[in-house]
Specification:
The structure holds two protein chains of two kinds. Chain A is mainly alpha-helical. Chain A contains 13 helices and no strands. Chain A has two domains: 53 residues, no CATH class; 165 residues, MetI-like (MetI-like fold). By secondary structure, chain B is mostly helical. Helices cover 71% and strands 0% of the residues of chain B. Chain B is globular, with a radius of gyration of 24 Å. The chains are: A mainly alpha, B mainly alpha.
């Protein structure tokens, strides 16, 4: 029974796969198309061919002070990721290289902290933020995002670190390397890809977080999630601008996501599926 | 062999993370419990005192309460069924030899990276809007009156939007697991006379059991807390038909300023989450010991 796929079957499957992929991608595609229309065009009715104008993008960037939410998103995503790494790298390192019988339990416990529904602690968190002046501050949002994603970061780093072949260190040691040199020249380079992947995934998760960022910000610290959320009600002729704003908001992350598919699988399943 | 590192140093390295998560766990939960039994409204902070179970009865007798519980569970179940069911099919499809597989994958996983607010506004204004939405356009093309998705089928619409966002996740995970299934196993089965359906049921599906379980567990954690999509598309309505528990808690505790009731609702959400978790572990947890 030959397993070279018959060309007929391959053609059929290819068509099917492409149809499905385009159907799923369509909402994004249509948003992109609409963002390249003028408002007049967008209001005129349905059309798949835009006039390829960038005026809606210009309008969005000019009218609604778009840079503030955008930079807020950047700051809290990158900030919370760096903070999480500072906390998580030593922890994951210790657990991966000096495992104890308790290590598994600690990891499981960290996982369980993600099971707590955010809505369960919304009320006291809102109050805490309100009374400590953290409400609507970038620092406050960064802090929360760090805590919310910390378990994932620790787990991901742990699975990457566990894969580092420690025997190489033995070889290095026998070649006369000191502990410091081992660390920097042998271990660190092997750890960097794992750290980079984790960093990427966490930026994505933090950028897209749409509960705390909506509820703990009002105007100053509002990131893109809150900015876009304010378009919930239709506002006259706005479809083209909304599309442009949407594309601008998702573009960096969708691109990052395309690059980090495999890390995503590992990270979000806490290493259970690789 | 492990790097020579004293246990003490290892513990020290773990301390910051463990402490941070410990505080994050205990403090808010303790406060929730405290406020749940206090009388406290933001509108009149002067009134305080022990409220016993008043907050709980207030929250539970809210006409939106039972609809919210049901809707929360319906959202979880609906999205799980769609994403796991379609996810398996899509994973099988992507596992086939096709041209342009890389590009197909990229297109298919994109919805997962779209932030929930964008997904919500795009579906609401560009697809589901009855005047200029794409669905309306398609309906008119076939001579039908456009369906008012968010008005007539609010919960279903929310489920659709959330499922769209999570389908890539399920597909990716299942595809990864599928690709670890050795070609030889499938060949051996085929040579023993198993047809496509049998191969699927007896070889592929059991192999996927673990991945399916992981998908279900991870998605459920997030699905119990669907929030942004509801706030932006339907605002919980019409009436309470698309209100879920997180939205109700926000409405009561923050918008309504009734801190006590909001905290009570929060505890109910924790109980619900634990209940669902226990149910799921009983139902599919055995697959994890593979």
């Amino acid at each position: 029974m030959a397993h070279a796929a018959s060309t007929q079957r391959k053609i059929g499957m290819t068509i099917l796969a492409w149809v499905v992929a385009l159907l799923l991608f369509f909402p994004i595609l249509y948003t992109l198309i609409t963002s390249l229309k003028t408002e007049g065009e967008a209001a005129a009715g349905f059309s798949l061919i835009p006039s390829f104008t960038l005026e809606s993008y210009r309008d969005v960037l000019a009218l609604r002070d778009y840079f503030r939410p955008f930079s807020n998103s950047v700051i809290i995503s990158v900030g919370s990721t760096l903070l999480a790494l500072v906390l998580a790298v030593p922890a994951a390192w210790a657990m991966a290289f000096t495992p104890t019988p308790r290590t598994r339990d600690v990891l499981m416990w960290m996982l369980s902290t993600k099971m707590m529904p955010a809505a369960g602690v919304l009320v006291p968190m809102y109050l805490i933020f309100l009374y400590t002046g953290l409400l609507d501050t970038l620092f406050g949002l960064t802090l929360i995002l760090t805590l919310v994603n910390l378990p994932i970061v620790v787990w991901m780093l742990y699975t990457y670190f566990k894969e580092i072949p420690v025997d190489i260190l033995e070889a290095a040691r026998m070649d006369g390397a000191t502990l410091g040199k081992e660390l920097v020249y042998v271990l660190l380079p092997m750890a960097v890809p794992g750290i980079a992947s984790t960093l990427l995934l966490n930026v994505i998760l933090a950028w897209n977080e749409a509960f705390w960022t909506l509820r703990l910000s009002t105007t100053n610290a509002a990131p893109l999630t809150a900015f876009i959320a304010s378009f919930s009600a239709p506002q006259g002729q706005f479809l083209a601008k909304l599309s442009a704003a949407s594309i601008l908001a998702i573009l960096p992350i969708v691109l990052l996501g395309w690059f980090s598919q495999r890390q995503l699988v590992r990270g979000l399943t806490f290493g259970a599926v690789k | 062999m492990a790097i020579r590192q004293s246990r003490g140093l290892a513990r020290l390295m773990m301390m910051p993370s463990v402490l941070a998560l410990l505080v994050w766990m205990i403090v808010p939960l303790a406060l929730t419990i405290w406020y749940a039994v206090q009388r406290y409204r933001l509108t009149n902070p002067a009134i305080t005192g022990f409220a016993g179970i008043n907050n709980f009865s207030f929250f539970v007798t809210d006409p939106a309460f039972w609809p919210a519980i049901v809707n929360t569970l319906l959202i979880v179940a609906g999205v799980l069924v769609i994403t796991v069911g379609l996810g398996i099919l899509l994973a099988l499809l992507l596992d086939q030899p096709i041209w342009g597989q890389g590009l197909v994958r990229i297109l298919m996983i994109s919805p997962f990276f779209v932030m929930p607010p964008v997904a919500a506004v795009v579906w609401k204004h560009e697809l589901m809007n009855t005047q200029w939405g794409v669905f309306a356009e398609i309906a008119r093309f076939f001579g039908q009156t456009p369906i008012n998705w968010l008005g007539s089928y609010p919960l279903f619409s929310v489920i659709l939007i959330v499922a769209w966002q999570w389908l890539p996740f399920a597909t990716l995970i299942l595809l990864t697991a599928l690709q670890s299934l050795s070609e030889e196993q499938k060949d051996a089965a085929e040579m023993d006379g198993a047809n496509g359906l049998n191969r699927f049921w007896y070889i592929i599906l059991p192999h996927l059991a673990r991945a399916i379980t992981v998908v279900i567990l991870i998605e459920t954690i997030y699905l119990l807390g669907v929030y942004a999509e509801i706030q932006i598309t339907t605002g919980g309505g019409p009436g309470f038909s698309s209100t879920n528990l997180p939205f109700l808690i926000y409405n009561t505790g923050v918008l309504g300023g009734n801190i006590g009731a909001g905290a009570a609702g929060g505890l109910i959400a924790v109980v619900l989450a634990n209940g669902v978790a226990i149910f799921l572990m009983r139902a599919v947890g055995k697959n994890l010991d593979a």
